[in-house]
Amino acid sequence: MPAYKRILLKLSGEALMGDDAYGINRATIVRMVREIQDVTRLGCEVAVVIGGGNIFRGVAGGAVGMDRATADYMGMLATVMNALALADTMRQEGMTARVMSAIAIEQVVEPYVRPKALQYLEEGKAVIFAAGTGNPFFTTDTAAALRGAEIGAEIVLKATKVDGVYTADPRTDRSATRYSTISFDEAIARNLQVLDATAFALCRDQNLPIRVFSIFKAGALERVVMGEDEGTLVHV
Ligand code: UDP
């Protein structure tokens, strides 16, 4: 039995990139989808918020000199491309998926309508939330916290390259150790970057736990959904 009936999975754009410098790596996206498919087969309802950093980031190189809001809209559109790729890969792998966008682009994807999203989830379809929150100056982390709270997900699963929250950056500090669990307050006190500040505050206020884990470890998502000690659980 899965530990959760409904999860909100935050996949960064990077998670689709594999070892490529940008864009979507075919083998990687197929692998991601299979990991997601495994947990839907367990009976867990899955909603995904997809990032866009593999294509465009509003505060990065390509955006230098641009109006921030305009650059952020480009970033949100990048998440729509990732969402379409993810949904199509899901379809190829035999899953049923729906993309819902926070920005109206009705010829391409349906708009986000909460009751519709809830209906799809109840029907066992994977729902992919595109275009973040629909607002500039936010991130897809915040969209994950927001949608997670809205759909009544029991947990936000933040899939990263690093397999949890560490005392220091494990890539540069060999003495760094991974927290198995940590409270929101301690994460703040220790200045640990779990989600961006807005997303973090929203999860804390809504008593929505976050688990940070590595999507690149085979079977990690399934272990998380089965309630095993994988990555780091951030709780109230
Ligand atoms: N973005 C935004 N509002 C949102 C979500 C995303 O403006 O609600 C823009 C922002 O420019 C961001 C980009 O879209 O840099 C891609 O999202 P994010 O950086 O969160 O993607 P990830 O790092 O997860 O791939």
From TrEMBL:
GO molecular function: ATP binding; UMP kinase activity
One Pfam match: AA_kinase
Catalytic activity: UMP + ATP = UDP + ADP
UniProt entry tagged with the keyword Transport: no
GO BP terms, alphabetized: 'de novo' CTP biosynthetic process; UDP biosynthetic process
GO cellular component: cytosol
Transcription regulation found in the keyword field: no
Keywords: ATP-binding, Cytoplasm, Kinase, Nucleotide-binding, Pyrimidine biosynthesis, Transferase
Binding site for ATP: K10, L11, S12, G13, G53, R57, T160, Y166, D169
Functional pathway: Pyrimidine metabolism; CTP biosynthesis via de novo pathway; UDP from UMP (UMPK route): step 1/1
InterPro entries registered for this protein in UniProt: AceGlu_kinase-like_sf, Asp/Glu/Uridylate_kinase, Uridylate_kinase, Uridylate_kinase_bac
Localisation: Cytoplasm
Domain Aspartate/glutamate/uridylate kinase positions: 5-214
Positions that bind UMP: G52, D72, T133, G134, N135, P136, F137, F138, T139, T140
Domain of life: Bacteria
Enzyme class: transferase
UniProt main location, coarse: cytoplasm
EC number: 2.7.4.22
Activity regulation field: Inhibited by UTP.
Family statement drawn from the similarity comment of this UniProt entry: Belongs to the UMP kinase family.
Quaternary context: Homohexamer.
UniProt cross-references to NCBIfam families, sorted A to Z: pyrH_bact (TIGR02075)
Functional description taken from the UniProt entry: Catalyzes the reversible phosphorylation of UMP to UDP.
The name this protein goes by in its record: Uridylate kinase
Source organism of this protein record: Piscinibacter koreensis
Lineage start: Bacteria, Pseudomonadati, Pseudomonadota, Betaproteobacteria, Burkholderiales
